[in-house]
């Protein structure tokens, strides 16, 4: 009994300094919280929480994202940078780091007041048991020049029975402002002994400072937890609490041990929380101070174990248990590293092997090479003797990974020059780069190429273009050879003989030919009546209709182009002015020389009174001096010839009929 009294005194004495402003927290072992007020969690970031239940606070609820005014509160998961003109802190999440978790944002009343009341049912507590009461508080005012002299929160916690009997009180002192980028939450707490009679316990929080300017705070995570003697644990040996690391499919085999001093004849119960469990569960039959963990072919995850201890005076009341810190067994997956199947370098360049992500490394390779570095330099002057397989062993969390990379040392790139070439418009040429040790080709520009990344692309440029190819290999990316070739594109010959035109017999006219293309000669056929058949615009003195063809010929093998033009030569008419239709076989008809050169001509003959006596188209049958089958009287007649061609004017005159 003396030992029990001594140990109890040692872990309680820390809490027995009334009026202290330091946080008073349990230095023994805590039980599961019987009260854990977190103010809840929203579904999305920035969501505003619902008001607290009636009777918890005398402050007015305000659903605003920047907290309320004096005498108001909000439940928020975060606050922005501009709240209260930027004088309040930016808070990105609640004190636990949950971005959706709520905290109580308080803008204090003008006068000191009791702002928070929480009643704990007596049936949740163990009688005559030491409990830790704790809450996390943050002064949300920024320490700025304009906030100097503002009020600082000063909170008194009072833990009472319903009849007003004070079980314990505690004062935080003034909670200072700061301007740290990360909010400096602080836990304030005290301990108390629960009533023997099982009555309820009421927690009251009073803000002793005035509001108006300052005295603004955030409150989070209020807990009541039983506090008992320190429980010590370990793997096989007390104090050996370091996490145990294993690899997937390992067989777990550990003995867990525990001890405590303070509870005589305590009840023990080991618990586990493994592979994603969210709550602790009792292990059936594990009720001694040791437990043997046996798990064959363990899967990846965290395996946690702890022991709960219950005083014999509270036997059967599991809510009065205190718990050890958990012992952790980690099971890790085998590490993987995407080691390249090949590692390349260039003759004379450094050879560097690369890996990361492990706790330790071991490289082995040709020439008895070994290294414990993650990315060792094998040599600064590589040659072919360094080629071969290099094996890597990475260990992460005690789990090994093996991989191999094949080192290839490349010789430097060589390439022969390219020649300039010429092609005809619309043609193509295929390059062929003669090189050694080359793996990469890049052509500039890519216009007109079927590929720009091979050694032998086909080029079909529309205009003369100079192409450049850069040649390298994967091992020597900084060593590039280049070659150029100018592809001259000759324009194809194009002939245009011009439009059809007409001329009068006995005159001259110029042909209007045009030619284009590179390296060409021009000439006309036939050369008849032309003063210079090689000129694009020769003069013609043709005496009859004729068609000329212009030839434009490439002298560099790009073909020949032809174009033709028709020249209409108007023949002069030979018109006699007298004929004698007397059937003597001489001048019996009115003949017109060359009239057959105008096949569409219309000939009309009129007597002196204006009556038409003859009409003919094309004049296939000359006028024989008759009118409607009867002989026309001798005399003077008048004719009109309408050529019906181009812009030729009508021709008129007289003819004398003699009998």
From TrEMBL:
Q: Which domain of life is it from?
A: Bacteria
Q: Which organism is it from?
A: Mucilaginibacter ginsenosidivorans
Record keywords: Signal included?
A: yes
Keywords in alphabetical order? Signal
Taken from the record, one Pfam family name reads CHU_C
InterPro entries reported for this sequence: Ig-like_fold, T9SS_type_B
User: Entry's NCBIfam families?
Assistant: Bac_Flav_CTERM (TIGR04131)
Report the leader peptide range. 1-23
Q: Does the keyword Transmembrane apply?
A: no
Protein's name in the database: Gliding motility-associated C-terminal domain-containing protein
Which Gene3D superfamilies does this chain map to? Immunoglobulins (2.60.40.10)
């Amino acid at each position: 009994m003396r030992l029990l009294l001594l140990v109890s005194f040692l872990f309680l004495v820390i809490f027995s300094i009334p009026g202290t402003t330091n946080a008073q927290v349990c230095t023994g072992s805590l039980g599961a919280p019987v009260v854990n007020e977190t103010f809840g969690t929203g579904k999305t970031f920035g969501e505003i929480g619902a008001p607290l239940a009636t009777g918890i606070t005398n402050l007015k609820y305000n659903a605003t994202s920047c907290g309320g005014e004096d005498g108001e509160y909000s439940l928020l998961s975060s606050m922005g940078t501009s709240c209260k003109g930027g004088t309040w802190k930016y808070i990105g999440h609640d004190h636990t780091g949950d971005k959706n978790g709520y905290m109580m944002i308080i803008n204090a009343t003008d006068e000191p007041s009791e702002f928070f009341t929480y009643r704990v049912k007596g049936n949740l507590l163990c009688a005559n048991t030491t409990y830790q009461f704790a809450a996390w508080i943050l002064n949300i005012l920024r320490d700025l020049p304009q906030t100097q002299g503002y009020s600082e929160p000063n909170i008194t916690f009072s833990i009472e029975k319903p009849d007003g009997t004070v079980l314990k009180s505690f004062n935080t002192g003034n909670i200072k402002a700061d301007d740290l980028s990360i909010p400096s939450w602080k836990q304030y707490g005290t301990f108390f002994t629960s009533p023997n009679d099982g009555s309820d316990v009421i927690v009251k929080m009073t803000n002793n400072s005035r509001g108006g300017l300052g005295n603004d705070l955030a409150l989070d995570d209020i807990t009541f937890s039983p506090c008992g003697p320190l429980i010590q644990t370990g793997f096989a040996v007390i104090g050996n609490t370091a996490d145990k690391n294993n690899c997937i499919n390992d067989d777990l085999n550990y003995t867990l041990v525990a001890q405590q001093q303070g509870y005589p004849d305590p009840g023990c119960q080991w618990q586990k929380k493994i592979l994603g469990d969210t709550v602790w569960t009792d292990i059936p039959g594990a009720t001694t101070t040791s437990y043997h963990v046996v798990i064959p072919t363990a899967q990846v995850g965290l395996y946690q174990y702890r022991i709960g201890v219950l005083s014999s005076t509270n036997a059967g009341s599991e809510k009065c248990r205190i718990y050890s810190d958990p012992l952790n067994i980690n099971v890790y997956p085998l590490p993987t590293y995407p080691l390249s199947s090949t590692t390349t370098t260039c003759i004379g360049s450094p050879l560097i092997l690369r890996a990361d992500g492990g706790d330790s490394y071991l490289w082995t390779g040709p020439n008895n090479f070994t290294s414990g570095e993650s990315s060792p330099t094998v040599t600064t002057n590589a040659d072919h003797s360094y080629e071969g397989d290099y094996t890597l062993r990475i260990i992460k969390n005690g789990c090994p990974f093996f991989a191999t990379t094949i080192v290839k040392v490349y010789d430097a790139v060589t390439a022969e020059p390219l020649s300039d070439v010429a092609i005809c418009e619309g043609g193509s040429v295929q390059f062929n780069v003669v090189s050694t040790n080359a793996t990469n080709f890049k052509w500039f520009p890519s216009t007109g190429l079927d590929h720009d990344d091979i050694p032998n692309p086909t080029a079909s440029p529309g205009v003369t273009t100079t192409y450049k190819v850069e040649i390298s290999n994967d091992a020597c990316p900084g060593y590039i050879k280049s070659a150029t070739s100018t592809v001259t594109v000759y324009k194809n010959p194009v002939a245009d003989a011009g439009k059809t035109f007409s001329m009068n017999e006995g005159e001259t006219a110029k042909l209007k030919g045009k030619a284009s293309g590179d390296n060409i000669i021009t000439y006309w056929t036939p050369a008849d009546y032309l003063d210079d058949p090689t000129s694009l615009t020769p003069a013609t003195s043709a005496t009859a209709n004729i068609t000329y063809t212009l030839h434009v010929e490439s002298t560099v093998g790009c073909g020949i182009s032809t174009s033709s033009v028709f020249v209409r030569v108007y023949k002069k008419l030979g018109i006699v002015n007298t004929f004698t239709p007397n059937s003597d076989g001489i001048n019996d008809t009115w003949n017109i020389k060359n009239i057959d050169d105008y096949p569409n001509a219309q000939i009309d003959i009129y007597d002196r009174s204006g009556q038409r006596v003859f009409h003919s188209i094309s004049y296939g049958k000359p006028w024989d001096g008759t009118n409607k089958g009867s002989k026309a009287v001798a005399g003077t007649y008048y004719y009109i010839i309408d050529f019906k061609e181009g812009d030729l004017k009508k021709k008129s005159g007289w003819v004398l009929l003699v009998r």
